[in-house]
Amino acid sequence: MALAAVGREGSFSRAAESLGYTQSAISQQIARLERTVGHRLVERPGGPRAVALTLAGRLLLGHAQAIVARLASAQADLDALASGEAGLLRVGCYQSVGVRVLPRILREFRATWPRVNVELTEAEDDGELLALVERGELDLTFVVYPMPPGPFAHRQLLSDPYVAVVAASSPLGRDGPLRHADLAGLPLVTYAQMREVHSIESRLGRPELTQQIVFRSNHNGTILGLAAEGVGTALISWLSVDPHRAGIRTVPLAGVSPRLVGIAWHRDRYRIAAADSFIEIAAREAAEEQGLADALL
User: Is 62's pLDDT higher than 60?
Assistant: First the structure.
């Protein structure tokens, strides 16, 4: 910038030399700028004395430098956006993943990708989240297998075993895992809204258990509270259990296939680099949670 060079060098000729212009070109630029703003910007004492910016010149230069800095910052942001290092990542999740796994994923992701904002959409039915992925309203979503038909790619993250949660004082499960026969006649509490394939009756292959379910809830805390008070035995997955909650015991369920948790995205849509990193971080954190489940159950 001609004005900055004149102020820095104290001479039109040295300013021209530093910028690679002729002295007349610098003089013309300063004269045009003065006409445009309507103020004298440079003191021209003549002779051997150095030229200097006027108060108006210094004021204008300060604003100009701030504008140049903001433009440089904007260009850096645009470059980061183009390279996938900045922008928005829209992620769908459901409660159990949101409580037990997602916080650790986001901690590492934010440290690695500080300029990418993560926008969460929560729903208990992963079918709703997959529909948002298909419509392009989500970039990634956590899912429970099996995957429904659709334009999806996916990656399995962990095996989430089903468990029974009982009041701490309950005699159930004192001698080991509960079996199907042990559930006969027991009042049960479990999930409410979800894909039918995930219902506990479907998981156990026991549709008659519907008659024993005394309460359904979309909130894991409510389900655990009911179990703690002895209202019923909670049949839920390991990720839905708060391992630090007082008043409950977690008992393995024998002969029940685990819930397989994964992450899915639209196979035909562009993904920023940060999305692939999110998937890799999710896989690492899920492996840690899998180890904890295997050790305790």
Answer: yes
